[in-house]
Amino acid sequence: MPPAASRSSGPFVPAGTVRVFDTTLRDGEQAPGAGLTAAEKLEVARQLVRLKVDVIEAGFPAASPGDFDAVHRIARETRGVAVAALARCRDGDPQRAIEAIRVAERPHLHVFIATSDIHLKHKLRIDRDQALAEARKWVAFGRKMLGADAEIEFSAEDASRTDVDYLMRVYEAVVEAGATTINIPDTVGYAIPSEFGALVARAVDLLGRDATVSVHCHNDLGLATANTVAAVQAGARQVEVTINGLGERAGNASLEEVVMALRTRPTQFPDLVTGVQTEQITAASRLVSYLTGFAVQPNKAVVGGNAFAHESGIHQDGVIKNPLTYEIMTPQSVGLTGSQLTIGKLSGRRGLQGKLRELGHDVEGEALDAIYRQAIALADLKKEVTDADLLALVEQRASEVPASVSILGWSVTSSHGGNATGTVSLTVAGEERGVEATGNGPVNALYSAVDQALQPVLGWHPVLTEYEIKAVSAGEDAQGQVLVRCRRSSDEGPGALIVSGHGLSTNIIEASLEAYLVAANKLHGAEINGVSVAFISGRTVEDPS
């Protein structure tokens, strides 16, 4: 396989550059239970801008009104980055995608159709010639509608299981029709690095002077990152990745792994760089983990809690003498400081702002004032406010939702044996409700009271599907962070909308109640906006990845 430096970069990627296409907000969100609100999507998009990815795939506009609105808002409000929208090669999809991204500084239309015989026969029920014609038709449509300067990308779904000669015919046809990027997805994580690199090399040899060759790898065999870096060595100049490797089934190639592999092993990728600001990686990882409710495993490469931890005495001795003995990258290179900040009552806003910037969050104005007030209030409740506490406050603010259900007050009594009585006073859609209920513990009693308050007004109440508690930091006075997942009682079956809610407090009962109300507000917001249960999940249409 020729070295990376000898390969063409394609017409839209500068020589020596690998373009980073982040699909956390599209493919990443398709992980079951990872759905984000429009406001949360925008918050992630802002962090991706700080991370300096090249392209943000903001969503699938034809999937639902909510997804269209989120993509359009990101296209309108983010600058310095291309904004992509996904569309099937099917009438209606490309039009909707173009409408959503037309306002972007750099619109990027991404159209796809399956090309493997198994997909053509059993899913699309068309033949190869029909698929090729549809691909050519909708690429040409996108070029006509967006103009000569726009980026038009074509993906051949299930490319790694497609007849190679036919696949090259499709790619040649779409480039002739106006595609500037051709994407080779390993949709079901079937490929291994040697064969995937050879497939990419063939596409680069065929089209490298006329189009950028991109790859999109899934992790079903644990090879997504390996396949992606093999593709870069073969000449691919766009990598499609997600924060934390989030995505359907076993996930996608991880942005942090791919980017740090390129940075850490420069001799394997001669004269190749990305534009990613790697010091923002940890902040991006934490934000996505928090908003989706998907915890990062401790031994996850680059961003896991143990990635820079050393327990063995031999390892500790080596790291103390020279960190390079057991660390191939520095914690600082991915946004870890290794230090702890203690905030007290006399701490100032400017100092807090500086520390948050060190931790990867540029906060100012009203948001800074709100976090400052929370930090000072927290300092009254516990001995010290750590970096982890501050990050938790920032993350909590990122997930705030409009509150049609709000708490006025609550109380609970509990006794030996688990018997408890909870009382809540709420406003529900402007109506004040006070309810008392019993349960087999304080949290259960309060949740039952909330359910009884909501049911008469909304016609449903949340149904808890998952409940998780973790301490933000060490010590008896640590803040408790609660994650819940809920659906509406009126929704049944596998297509039911499930949302997450977070709560944060030194009082774990209060954190639990707060999380439950956040989930209730998300469910009510989806109902108010008329977003269907099936569509908001983002999994009702074929996935190209």
Task: Outline the structure in words.
The protein has helices at residues 38-51, 65-77, 93-101, 117-124, 128-146, 164-177, 193-207, 224-233, 255-264, 281-292, 313-321, 349-358, 365-381, 387-398, 442-458, 508-528, 533-536, and strands at residues 19-22, 55-59, 82-88, 106-114, 151-157, 181-186, 212-217, 238-241, 405-414, 420-428, 431-439, 462-471, 480-488, 499-505. It is an alpha/beta fold and 545 residues long. A hairpin with a 2-residue loop joins strand 10 and strand 11 (431-439). It is globular and about 70 Å long.
Helix content: 25-40%
Largest sheet: 8 strands, parallel, barrel
Shape: globular
Return residue spans where pLDDT drops below 50 for at least 5 consecutive residues: 1-9, 531-542
What is the average of the pLDDT values? 85
- The Rg value, from CA coordinates, equals 25 Å
- Distance between termini? 25 Å
Please summarize what this structure is:
By secondary structure, the chain is of the alpha/beta class. It is built from 17 helices and 14 strands. It has helices at residues 38-51, 65-77, 93-101, 117-124, 128-146, 164-177, 193-207, 224-233, 255-264, 281-292, 313-321, 349-358, 365-381, 387-398, 442-458, 508-528, 533-536; strands spanning 19-22, 55-59, 82-88, 106-114, 151-157, 181-186, 212-217, 238-241, 405-414, 420-428, 431-439, 462-471, 480-488, 499-505.
